[in-house]
Every structure is written in C-alpha cells, then in structure tokens.
Design goal:
Layout: H1 2-26, H2 31-38, H3 48-62, E1 69-70, H4 72-75, E2 94-95, H5 96-110, H6 120-131
Antiparallel strand pairs: 1-2
Bound molecules: calcium ion (3 copies).
Length: about 130
C-alpha cells in the first residue's frame, strides 16, 4: 500500500513538472502582462488604437530591413505567429495593410460584446488560445 502511494505521488510530481513546462511553452509571457503592455493608458480596456499601436511596434521589430513589408525570412522571427495569419494573398509577405487588417480582425473577434473595448476577460479568453504569445 505504501509503495502504491509513493508511486502515485511520484507520477503526480512528474505530471506537475510536465504541466508547468507545457504551460510555459504555450504561454511564455503571462496573459496579464501582455494585456498591460498593450493597454497603454492603463484604463483596463484595450482599444482598437492601442491594439494597432502594438501591431505597429511588433511590425517594426520584425521588419528588419525597414522596407514596410515582413517577408518570409523576417516572419520566422515571429515566434508568436501573430502575423502568420495576416498573409491573405499568400505571397509570403505581410504588408502593413495586411497587418492592420489582421489586427482589426483580432480586435473584433476579441471584443465579444461589441462595445469597441476589450476587457481583460475578453482578452484572456481569446488571446492565449488563438495567438500563443
Ligand atoms: Ca486602454
Ligand atoms: Ca522587410
Ligand atoms: Ca501578403
């Protein structure tokens, strides 16, 4: 009986370690931190403008040669794959227009009740599942 308990505890421990590692892989940056970094004026809502400002910042980071386009090589550095879905015309490049449109879609999808504000709850529900930041 004692051994049985130990085995269960052992496996419980292993499971605990694995679930932690797994959680970190899916979500390296806590969602709350992410929310705060996007909510620039700290009013606990993400506005469409704030999300686009975030998009522009990320776009600039990825666009190494500053030609206003994220090409296939630059896109590899997008670990979060946040721009991955933006390439609607499938030319392996993300234009600023495509990026803008994609984040507009993100915003509308997150804004569940359509009040043009994204709360932390709405954000938490959508962002980690769909965007693995
Ligand atoms: Ca805000
Ligand atoms: Ca570029
Ligand atoms: Ca494209």
């Amino acid at each position: 009986m004692k051994l049985g308990k130990r085995v269960i505890m052992f496996f419980g421990f292993i499971l605990f370690i694995f679930s932690n590692v797994f959680a970190q892989q899916i979500n390296p940056q806590p969602v709350k931190e992410q929310f705060k970094s996007i909510d620039e004026n700290n009013d606990k809502f993400i506005s469409s403008n704030e999300l686009q400002a975030y998009q522009a910042k990320k776009f600039n980071e990825l666009d190494k040669d500053k030609n206003g386009i994220i090409d296939k090589d630059e896109l590899k550095d997008d670990k979060s794959k946040i721009f991955g879905k933006a390439d609607k015309n499938n030319d392996n490049q993300i234009s600023q227009k495509e990026a803008f449109k994609q984040f507009n879609d993100y915003f509308n999808s997150m804004d569940a009740n359509g009040d043009k504000k994204v709360t932390e709850d709405e954000f938490e529900e959508y962002w980690p599942i769909n965007l693995r930041l």
